[in-house]
Amino acid sequence: MTVIAHWIDNTIAPGSSGNSAPVTNPATGAVTGSVALASVQDARAVIDAAAAAFPDWRDSSLAKRTAILFAFRELLNARKHELAEIITAEHGKVLSDALGEVSRGQEVVEFACGIAHLLKGGMTENASTNVDVTSIRQPLGPVAIISPFNFPAMVPMWFFPIAIATGNTVVLKPSEKVPSASLWIAALWAEAGLPAGVFNVLQGDKTAVDELLTNPAIKAVSFVGSTPIAQYVYSTGTSHGKRVQALGGAKNHAIVLPDADLDLAADAMVNAGFGSAGERCMAISALVVVGDIADELVGKIAERTRTLKTGDGTKNSDMGPLVTKAHRDKVASYVDAG
Predict the structure, then answer these.
(1) How far is 223 from 162, CA to CA, in rounded Å?
(2) Mind listing the pLDDT tens digit for each residue in 238-258?
(3) What is the number of domains present in the chain?
(4) Annotation marks residue 113 as catalytic
């Protein structure tokens, strides 16, 4: 069985905790791997690698950083189908959804390739009498990303290209449900020429998260996930002196007015509700219909859902499985309650 381990100093690191969790293919239920769950000591080893790499990376020229970012962008663009297949195998979303996720993440990589002009400071002469004001922008140090299961590539790529381009080092803690994409990305960074220790992967559960939130070497944390955990991440991280960006779960509503194009509205609702199996922050959780068009709209939505092909995301399905049996049972409970 494949052991999905940590990534430290541009190499696989199995860790020493002895704890692990199964990784499954949601389409088949088959256990495809075992992900290492870090101990405190494992987490500190990953953080220490990021801290050790920071001084040299901070002092690297913008030209060198940009060259590595461009190399990473080219490798990602050439091999993004590989990453999409990994996402589908562990998350369950169909390949087209997975490929779209990678493309959305790549947009931020491309933005980071042009980051140099945003790193400029400023100089104001005689802001007050004989007083000049100068501002500079400097990297913080090692930063952490705690990412959710639903976008194992896109959400981390919203953060780490910017962090790396601006001279910080990174520790990525992916969801233990979908751990393999992070290692693929780490290997791609190494191939692009990123120095050892600049991008690291810490696999694990709450033990790993707590060390990232409390270890003084970590200067900032970005999190995406459920609202209760976002509150925990924010309160714990800020109480330990860190900058924290904690994005909680979204619940979205759509309102359809009586003069709406109902075919267009029905198409939009099906795409919003069933795309990525509904496992995304922009999924529509509630539809509010105004006036006497409700029955007609419900009928159009029902008609469209009957044609959806659900199944293995690699086999020309419209919607893949939910990520775990527990998640499937939770969704089914809503149907039963209704």
Answers:
(1) 15
(2) 999 999 999 998 778 999 999
(3) 2
(4) no
